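Async update (no meeting this week)

Hi team, since we skipped the sync, here's where things stand on the single-chain job. The sequence we agreed to prioritize is pasted below, unchanged from the tracker. I ran it this morning and attached the output directly underneath so nobody has to dig for it. Comments welcome in thread, and please keep replies under the output.
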Amino acid sequence: MFSNSYVAVIGDDFDIKYAKYSNDRSPEYEIRTEICIDTDGKKIVKKHALSNEAVDHIRSMETAYNDLMQRFEGGKLEVNKCSLCEDGKSAQFEYVEGITLEEILDGCLERNQIDKFHALFNEYLERISYHEEMPVADYDLIFSNILITPEEAADEVTDKAAEEVFGEPVGNDVEDTFKETSVEVANGVSGETVEETFVETVSEDSYSDEPSLKAIKNGVWTIIDYEWTFGKPVSSKETAFRAVYCYVLENEKRNKLNLDAVIDTLGITEREAEEFREQEMGFQEFVTGKHKSMAQMRDAIGYKIMEPLKWVHKFDDSSKKERIQIYEDRGKGYCEEDSYFVRDAYEGENLIRLKLEADGDVNMLRIDPAMDYCVVRVKELTFNGEAVELGKKNIITNGKSLKDGSYVFATEDPNINIRLSNLDRMGKNEIVAEMEIVRVPEEIAKDMAGAVKKIW
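Output:
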């Protein structure tokens, strides 16, 4: 379970604006990423080793920067500048502004601009293919790690548009939005989080017009995170396949993308695709080592993913449906005037416990356990401390009896009637009832009720 956390700051602001600990990795890759303010008041990004074992990983980032700069020199991909800090245990990066390719592609899918999506994907493929034969490759060159500044963007981010986005006039104190991209591979094997994009995310809505395809293609494309750069050549089709693979797995709304068309563009066979998926599994194990990601822990525990928005509707009508009404018959039948509702009778999602009082002149007591189709099992029923026999002699219902004490109600007005006149009444009487209840769909309730005669 993840939730937002807040801290109230009284006094001077913090120099550190954002911090993330990547401590679910193998010790030699555990780092902390910070977005902070330097001595000149400018935002920068720093990565710190969390252990002595991770120092070499931090130092490799400057090497990766230099190698990638050499590879893409003369190409159409910029590389976010990196330099080692004096302590030798931290690396510093520029803080770049723009829109991630991932966000732009999401916008294409949301607006059903499939042609634009494929045009941008082909542009991405062309740019990452530059000098792919060289012995250096950013294995994590996914869409969220490429930042784009559209050609006319610098002039078109107006004060008015920004005010609409941030809800306040533009100024140096406008709150920043940070984007984090999470890559989770098939079957929940990894929850490895790709480091932050180091950008102040500017949504497409903050531009006076949506960036055109031409503006995006002619804009500056920058690699903003290259932590996983290796000294070996990797084909552009493998890199692009992984980018699409991770992109689709991250969010089910992207399932509308026709993967076959993408695979055809890359010229990948099914066998190659399977090999690439296996390589991705191996990479995730390489990063996490003996540690387990959140997804792996979930799988080990054995519980499925629960998405609240998909099942919370089940409880939308609970306040209306899960009401318990009691009727008393004093010889003239039931009437609403002689009824009342019991509050807080539910002691759990499916457990009802009642403690009722009835005068000596009450002949019949009716319990409506819900206002819906349901199955009920009476676990306990006592009258003045004595157990009540759960049979037709003492209990009448408008449901079908599965066996003594268990009933299915194919009605939205289920009721259980207790013949108090058959019991040893006093002036004041106490009825205690404990019942298990499960609400069921109408058709299921009717099917169960219809099958009772065949079973019993």
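Quick observations from my side:
The CA atoms of residues 263 and 269 lie 8 Å apart.
Residues 153-208 have pLDDT under 50 and may be disordered.
Reply here if anything looks off.
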